[in-house]
Amino acid sequence: MLREHLLRTRIAGDVATPREGNLSNYRKMVDKDPGYQFGLTLKDWTFAETLEMMARLCGVDPDPRHRRGPDTIDVDLTLDALDAMGARIGQAARRQETVILATGHPHTLLGVYRAVEDALRAAGCVVLAPAAGWSYRVTTRFGPQNREIIYTSGVAALGTDGRLEHTHDPHPMRAMLRELRDAEPDHWPDLVVADHGWAGAAGEAGIETVGFADSNDPALFAGHAEGKIAVTVPLDDGIRPDHYQPLTAYLLDRAGLGR
User: Fold this and answer.
1) Taking the model in full, what pTM does it have?
2) Which of 95, 145, 211, 219 meets the CB 3.0–4.6 Å disulfide criterion with 199?
3) Which CATH number fits domain 91-242: 1.10.3470, 3.40.50, 1.10.10, 2.60.40?
């Protein structure tokens, strides 16, 4: 069963994401650090409200005295959110909707998105790939670098010199939506399947968005609580890529797109 697999691989349950990192990121969201807003314009959250919300929607320990060591993701919340995400993807397939897929975790989650893309295309959906090659300059610990939107089939990610990168940044999704709004208004997406800033920027733009988020990524859960993100699936987003295969099969089965 998927439940046992998620617990065994620590995609949910006792996850490797450290408690101190979780709490630090919650404070950054509360302080409105742009790197932890994921492109969302959120209300003024207190730390206590954020911890309560993350316990309720993600399953972290609600005790503020737990400051160090491991933390948790409630596997039943993961399964419930996968059911909801699958239902929405299935609806997109039946309606042959227009969809965008994008990930800030290409090294671990790309296979999940590619499988969803293939299933949606087979169902007759239009998968958009706007702003390919759009680039901008960022400052990293290695110095200034150019980052650009790179597509693996129809899944957007951020890259440097052809190398895919992890990102929280909402700017690439904003660039994609600007291009669609200016050049292809008839191809505005009905649904975005994404994570990190890709999901946040889409939800902030009013597009129905379903996404994945780790226990140290409170913004998408806050966006869900505020009604800007339709579904946020709690999971550890840094596990070996092959460990997500049973989760992907379950998601597509719930969408009515399983093989």
Assistant:
1) 0.96
2) 211
3) 3.40.50
